[in-house]
Amino acid sequence: MSDESVKQHPLTPVDEDIQMKTEEEKMEIINENEEVGETELDSSHEKDQKKIEPGIIYLGHIPPRFRPRHVRNLLSVHGEVGRIFLQPEERFIRKKKKKAGSNAKNFTEGWVEFRDKRVAKLVAASLHNTPMGVRKKSQFHYDLWNMKYLHRFKWTHLSERLAYERQVRQQRMRAEVSQAKRETNFYLQNVEKSKRFSEKNGQGEHEEKSWGFVQRCTEEEIQKCKGNKRLKQQLARAAEIQQKSQSNSSLLTKIFNTQR
Known about the structure:
- GO terms for molecular function: RNA binding.
- Belongs to the ESF2/ABP1 family.
- It is found in: Nucleus, Nucleolus.
- Keywords: Nucleus, RNA-binding.
- Residues 1-21 are annotated as: Disordered.
- The chain is α+β, with helices and mostly antiparallel strands.
- Among the domains are: 9-50; 55-167, CATH 3.30.70.330.
- It is built from 7 helices and 4 strands.
- It starts with a helix and ends with a helix.
């Protein structure tokens, strides 16, 4: 009885088709599960990438001879550093320094971009008011970091600000140039007017001479003339008296000589 119950029944063609269909459905389900898993991994990876946003730190103090390479070397230890911008000194300050004999190019302020804003926040909080140089032999050991993390500040804002400052500087230069041109034109016009007035005055003097007009003397000039006339008269009288005295003396000498 046991042998008869264990007999194998041969599969019909219909059963074979059903078995093939079930196997194909299983393979499709497995492939769909694999694709869903890959998409979930990709989405999670993209979310991680989206979470990483850059952060910018503001540097309020830049010591002399401090360059962008020093910033990168000192801050790259704490995190990945991206773009760096240091604001140079103004031109008139550099001209004064050149006249004094120093050609060093210094910076006033700076901005540093970190790849991750979380790292930027930690760096700004930990390094603020700490010495720049770790070693005592470094030239920046006695200079302190002056850092501040800029919330919701992006590099495009900095570029826009720099472009705005450049436009303002250009407008100021144009206004100064136009004002200088106006002043020079006004000066040249006044010079031409003075030349014309001087020419007219010269022509008026020639005409007065041709008319024969004589200006009346002032009281001071009249008094001077009168004083000169009185002096001349007094001198003439003195000369006459002297001549008379000389003639009288000659007559007396003749008289006394004849008596003897």
